[in-house]
């Protein structure tokens, strides 16, 4: 099947790759077929890519799970998953999660360009990215609870890290929608811009991310990503070790 038939495509231009959800007629609602394709992108990414931009065609980033697929009886449907043995069901969900978690890779910085709705799986896709640029018309919601489900696409830890346990619980347990201004206020947004400026803002951010030394940026991402799990002393040690590697590399004495 072609990328457009599946509903998601990967394009690369030098150090920048773009993942585009391309089902604008259904607000880029997601399917298991899209998740399988997105998971494969991690292996298809050229080695010189440093920034991955994730975006949606049309007026929405992603309205979430395609209920016409999930609510049917075929592969990937709720009905099929419910018939599987518990471990097999969990393994299937792990395959779905891989479509999101590769965006955490230490050698890239991922940027979500969010306009319109980012609901459920759409919100979790934005959370999977390191940075989020929101248009002022963005509407975010962790809506799984409204279907009697839980967020299961690797979004819960990211949400707690960004906004704290209490606010994350309120967002997930109510399934309510928040606008871009609130997302910015509570720490979910890296930038908020007028809709007409979204592409330019993402482009400017990408240029800034590419301006630094690639290996230094990789070390910085690793330092910050692991900071919450380390004590002050452990973080300081990690800084010393990372700086030692950089100094040796810049002096031509790296491995």
How does the SSE layout of this entry go?
Elements: H1 3-6, E1 8-13, E2 16-21, H2 32-44, E3 51-56, H3 67-70, H4 78-83, H5 86-101, E4 109-114, E5 117-119, H6 121-128, E6 131-135, E7 139-141, H7 155-163, H8 165-174, E8 177-179, H9 180-185, E9 191-193, H10 198-211, H11 214-225, H12 232-250
Parallel strand pairs: 2-3, 3-4, 4-6, 5-7, 6-9
Antiparallel strand pairs: 1-2, 7-8
List keywords for this structure.
12 helices, 9 strands, globular, alpha/beta, 6-stranded mixed beta sheet, 255 residues, single chain
Q: Order of SSEs, N→C?
A: HEEHEHHHEEHEEHHEHEHHH
Contiguous helical run count? 12
- Summarize the amount of helix as a percent range: 40-55%
Radius of gyration computed on alpha carbons: 19 Å
Reading side by side through the largest sheet, how are the strands ordered? Answer: 1-2-3-4-6-9
Average pLDDT over all residues: 95
List low-pLDDT spans.
Answer: none
Sheet bearing the most strands, described? 6 strands, mixed
**Number of E-type strands:** 9
Q: How far do the termini sit from each other?
A: 43 Å
Principal-axis shape equals globular
Strand content: 15-25%
Structural class of the helices, strands and pairings? alpha/beta
């Amino acid at each position: 099947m072609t990328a457009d038939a599946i509903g998601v495509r990967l394009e690369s231009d030098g150090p920048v790759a773009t993942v585009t959800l391309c089902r604008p007629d259904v607000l880029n609602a997601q399917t298991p077929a899209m998740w399988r394709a997105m998971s494969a992108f991690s292996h298809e990414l050229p080695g010189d890519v440093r920034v991955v931009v994730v975006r949606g065609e049309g007026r929405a980033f992603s309205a979430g799970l395609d209920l016409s697929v999930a609510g049917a009886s075929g592969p990937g449907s709720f009905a099929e998953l419910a018939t599987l043995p518990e471990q097999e069901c969990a393994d299937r969900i792990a395959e779905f999660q891989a479509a999101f978690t590769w965006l955490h890779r230490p050698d890239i910085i991922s940027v979500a360009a969010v306009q319109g709705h980012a609901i459920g799986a759409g919100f979790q896709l934005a959370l999977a990215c390191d940075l989020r640029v929101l248009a002022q018309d963005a509407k975010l919601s962790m809506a799984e609870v409204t279907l009697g489900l839980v967020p299961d696409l690797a979004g819960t830890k990211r949400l707690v890290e960004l906004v704290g346990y209490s606010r994350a619980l309120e967002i997930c347990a109510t399934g309510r929608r928040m606008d871009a201004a609130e997302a910015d206020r509570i720490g979910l947004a890296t930038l908020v811009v007028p809709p007409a400026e979204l592409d330019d803002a993402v482009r400017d951010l990408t240029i800034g991310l590419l301006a630094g030394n690639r290996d230094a940026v990789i070390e910085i991402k690793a330092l910050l990503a692991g900071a919450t799990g380390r004590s002050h002393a452990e973080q300081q040690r990690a800084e010393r070790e990372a700086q030692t590697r950089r100094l040796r590399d810049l002096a031509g004495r790296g491995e």
